[in-house]
């Protein structure tokens, strides 16, 4: 579902990916994770999040010069972004923090990327209809607009 949505948004060159050498290319987009493992029941723990936090921060640091928008796939990623924000951008998270939700949006001060919330593209969400292709398309469309309209990075 994710690659199909990236394809519809004009970001990916094909709507599916089945192997590392299947020819998929993604333009001006980086996909990275708050955790680097598939934990039991696909439910990462705060400890796993904290263990993986240095990798998330490093990726954000490397992308900082050009990063304009972050889409947090799920509440876990949304929370991980707030924890990385001070370390990478020197900006304290807003208080109170904006609540996660599908389509939630935060625009911080100049030099920080916009943050968009999106339900995770897990089978639990896609098979039940909690996340539909149209919903994913809407978030990717908003992200594309924000990236094109603003010099956020």
In short:
Helices cover 41% and strands 8% of the residues. It is mainly α.
Characterize the structure shown.
Helices cover 41% and strands 8% of the residues. The protein is mostly helical and 153 residues long. A three-stranded mixed sheet has the order 1-3-2. Helix 1 crosses helix 5 and helix 2 packs across helix 3. The protein is globular.
List the helices and strands and how they pair.
Blueprint: H1 2-8, H2 46-63, E1 69-73, H3 75-89, E2 105-106, E3 114-118, H4 123-128, H5 133-149
Parallel strand pairs: 1-3
Antiparallel strand pairs: 2-3
Helix pairs in contact: 1-5, 2-3
N-to-C span = 28 Å
Helix content: 40-55%
Determine the strand fraction and express it as a percent band: 5-15%
Q: Which parts are unreliable, with pLDDT below 50 for 5 consecutive residues or more?
A: none
**Average pLDDT for all residues:** 90
